[in-house]
Amino acid sequence: MEISSRLLEEAVDEVSRLPGIGKRTALRLVLHLLKQPAEQTERLSEALRTLRTQIQQCRQCHNLSDREVCDICSNPKRDHSIVCVVEDIRDVMAIENTGHYRGIYHVLGGKISPMEGVGPQDLHIDTLIKKAKNGEVKELIFALSATMEGDTTNFYIFKQLGETALRLSTIARGIPVGDELEYADEVTLGRSILQRIPFEGSLNR
Amino acid sequence: MEISSRLLEEAVDEVSRLPGIGKRTALRLVLHLLKQPAEQTERLSEALRTLRTQIQQCRQCHNLSDREVCDICSNPKRDHSIVCVVEDIRDVMAIENTGHYRGIYHVLGGKISPMEGVGPQDLHIDTLIKKAKNGEVKELIFALSATMEGDTTNFYIFKQLGETALRLSTIARGIPVGDELEYADEVTLGRSILQRIPFEGSLNR
Questions:
Q1: Given A26, B60, B89, B202, which residue has the most CB atoms within 10 angstroms?
Q2: Cβ contacts of B44 on chain A, cutoff 8 Å
Q3: Residues B180, B176: Cα–Cα separation, whole Å
Q4: Rounded Cα gap, residues A136 and B49, in angstroms
Q5: What whole-number percentage of chain B has pLDDT above 70?
Q6: Cα B127 from Cα B113, distance rounded (Å)
Q7: Mean pLDDT of A19-23
Q8: What is the C-alpha separation between B51 and A9, in angstroms, rounded?
Q9: Does this complex have an ipTM over 0.85?
């Protein structure tokens, strides 16, 4: 697509560098901005720049944070003896949204994947091991995705911990709430039978 | 979705103001930027800001332009006696891409649409009428979309021109090249029969 204006072309080029956004969509977005008040573009431009230059990684859990230590790690009301191990910060948000977790997190920044060239040294595993051994932590919850890479990462961390008195757990796998059995895949359904849990009448009341 | 970082939240908010981009996509885009070198965000931010503050509308045809008069209007090799009337600058790009047009353009900035509250005074119709009467122009090509609004706009301009020696034309409507007849809508197919053109054997050679 030929764009006569150099300014427009540069903006479209930069926007289309974003994942999943082609030249056509980029052009549509940029033309939209031109129709809006200039302040909107100014705010967008400034928000991105500020974010990129000022955001930090929490020194303790590697979550994104405005300060050196994130809101969760610095919150005295959270239970610092339980650490939930997740891949990235979107998982933190997802778990926080449930409102069912009061412990703290540890963001690995990915999972071990030889296929993609990601090894243990690329992840925040050493800080996790150090944290796990500080005496304050009582339980580690593995909340990585249920894939080969996720399992490998769990196992690697387990090995690194060595002899430990920590309680180790993983989040429950099973049939999602509201799903019909006939559409569940066999592996999930099989696991959900093997790992069945006591029926709690109270949940149904 | 709860986002713990205020910086991140502001960036996601601004990005999700763009049309067709929800909070989740915005978050994905912003997290992507955070993984890339800081220069990419800087370039994106700067390109948008520069575009919004420096882009101009061509004084003659209302196309977007880096200068007061756009590259097309200021090109002495273009035929200034033929003016193609289009809705917006994307149409200019589309026609330029074909490589089949050597005249100049006039960008209306929309079409008359009472439903959306767009009247003739909101469009660049007066400058078109003035241009059409300057003596240099010999032909106007209406290239608006083939909708009720497009036809209304064509007709309004036609009326405003009054008695004129200009040649008026519209782009051909018909079956798109490569399309199968059975899938064409009736109106288009009907028109394409009524407005049939001489068979040119040369095209098939």
A1: B89
A2: 14-15, 17, 48
A3: 9
A4: 49
A5: 96
A6: 19
A7: 93
A8: 9
A9: no
pTM value surpassing 0.80: no
A192, two tokens: 């959900």
**Strand pairing partners for A167?**
A139
Task: Give me the mean pLDDT over the A132-136 stretch.
Answer: 88
For domain A67-202, is the CATH number 2.60.40.10?
A: no
Please return the burial class of B179, using the count of CB atoms within 10 Å of its CB with bins 0-12, 13-18 and 19+.
exposed
The strand ranges marked E within chain B are 56-57, 64-65, 79-86, 103-107, 139-142, 167-170
Pairwise CA distance, residues B170 & B151, whole Å = 10
Cβ(B17)–Cβ(A44) below 8 Å: yes
pLDDT in tens, A32-79: 999 899 999 999 999 999 999 999 999 999 999 999 999 999 999 999
Q: Map residue A64 onto helix, strand or coil.
A: strand
Report pLDDT for A49.
95
> What residues of chain A lie within 8 A of the CB of B8, using their CB?
51, 55, 64
Interface contact B61, partner A, CB < 8 A: no
Q: What is the distance between the alpha carbons of residues A195 and A170, in angstroms, rounded to a whole number?
A: 12
**Domain edges within chain B:** 6-54, 67-202
Of A8, A33, A66, the CB nearest to B5: A66
The answer to whether residue A72 neighbours chain B at the CB level (below 8 Å) is yes
* Nearest CA among B104, B113, B105 for reference residue B150: B113
CA quadruple B35, A24, B76, B58: dihedral positive or negative?
negative
Looking at A6-15, A26-35, A108-117, B179-188, which range is the least confident one?
B179-188
CA geometry: angle B29, B32, B36, nearest 5 deg? 140
Strand (E) or helix (H) holding A142: strand A139-142
pLDDT band at B205 (very low <50, low <70, confident <90, very high): very low
Token pair, residue A30, equals 């940029």
Note the CATH number of domain A6-54. Answer: 1.10.8.420
Do residues A4 and B73 touch, judged by C-beta distance below 8 A?
no
